[in-house]
């Protein structure tokens, strides 16, 4: 039985076992609070999407809701769902691989998703109290996540 070849690093140094060498030479830069907040944000957004969809259906049945506004609100909600899925995927990938590119793209999508949250908070055709509370909570999560993404990008660039 042959022994596996030793791992070599860029400096030509031989590392006999990767975990022991990794613990001595590198440090983990990925952000645990960002990862937890991303997971929480994904769960909250699922609740937000379903609740907002149900409220739009409710408002279209109970109130006078113009059909072109209904189509606009549903389209923006679906667009927000796609943006949120891509944002969370890129944010998780960038954080776990310690890559600033996907994390910066996630930060840009966070701004776009925040603007859509503001739309559902202020500019929607009919805004119920539940809409306002859910959108405000989502904006708080986006703000916290954006701040942690900036900190993580700064740590990765160093």
Automatic annotation (TrEMBL):
It is a multi-pass membrane protein. It comes from the Eukaryota. One of its GO terms (biological process) is non-motile cilium assembly. One of its GO terms (cellular component) is ciliary transition zone. The keyword Translocase does not apply. The chain crosses the membrane at residues 36-58, 70-90, 102-122, 134-157. Pfam families: Transmemb_17. Coiled coil: none annotated. InterPro entries: Uncharacterised_TM-17 (IPR019184). The keyword ATP-binding does not apply. Keywords: Cell projection, Membrane, Transmembrane, Transmembrane helix. It is found in: Cell projection, Cilium; Membrane. Its main location: other. This is Transmembrane protein 80. It comes from Marmota monax (Woodchuck). The lineage of its organism: Eukaryota, Metazoa, Chordata, Craniata, Vertebrata.
